[in-house]
Amino acid sequence: MEKEKLRIDKYLWAIRIFKTRSLAAEACDKGKIKFNGSAVKASKSVMLNDEYEIKTPDKKWVIKVVDLLFSRMKYAEAIKYYIDITPTEEIDRIKFEAAVFHTGKRMSKVGRPTKKNKRDLNDFMGE
Hints:
five-stranded antiparallel beta sheet; 5 helices
């Protein structure tokens, strides 16, 4: 295989945006990967300085290709092959959602009563 051509699905898998190559290919098929505003196929060749819009379940990415990565490697190395140019509004939205979601507490205090709540209720009702 010629080392000059690299498919977009393989590149997105190698830089660790998608966990598997088949998930990257599926995202291409569903139109979640865009180049210049139009959806791309999984077989599209990646070139240096290309900018892609990528929609994953967690985040909308905008990346710029800095170098081609042909095989998957650890995250610390993989991030050197692209520049994340995601708009700041999207990053702020993600941080806000993460702060709300990962507090470890429920959003509301409504839910099943605890044993203590049940005892208090039974005492109140006179049972």
